[in-house]
Amino acid sequence: MARQDPLRNFRFRLEIDSLQAAGFSEATIGASSTDAIDYREGTDPAHVRKLPGLRKFANVVLKRGVTNSMELYGWYKQVLQGQPSRRNVAIVILDDTGADQARFIVSEAWPVKYEASDLNAKGNEVFIETVELANEGIERVL
To answer: I need a surface site. Which of 23, 27, 49, 118 has the fewest CB within 10 A?
Structure first.
């Protein structure tokens, strides 16, 4: 059987519907969970059954160095104006050769938080913008 090494977490790309600025230095894929519902009828054995309940998907957090592009902030500004634009996001994990190896689809995403990093005249770091995306589903498709 051929050896399968785990994928590394530093080679990835994002694809966001209709946005060109999709280069990010960090991406946090939110957790997903399904509530368990206890259920028992009077004629059941003396234990409860577990039924699947509501599914929950945590927010996705994206970070990148600030450029002169206003695309991400513009997307967030639509939310501030009461007109959220929902988009599909793909987070693609690459292997050492740059080939797609894993793909997570984030459905119906829209920004719920925008943050710019602190400024420091004596610092030596990159100016970072962070966007947090609410969503209605995260699914691994590859």
So the answer is: 118
Q: Which residue has the tokens 């309940």?
A: 53
The pTM of this model reads 0.89
In contact, 135 and 112? CB cutoff 8 Å: no
Q: Please state, for a pLDDT cut of 90, what percent of the chain lies above it.
A: 87
Cβ(123)–Cβ(108) below 8 Å:
no
Separation in Å, CA 108 to CA 54, 84, 97, 137? 17, 10, 31, 7
Sequence-distant (≥ 6) Cβ neighbours of residue 20 within 8 angstroms:
69, 71
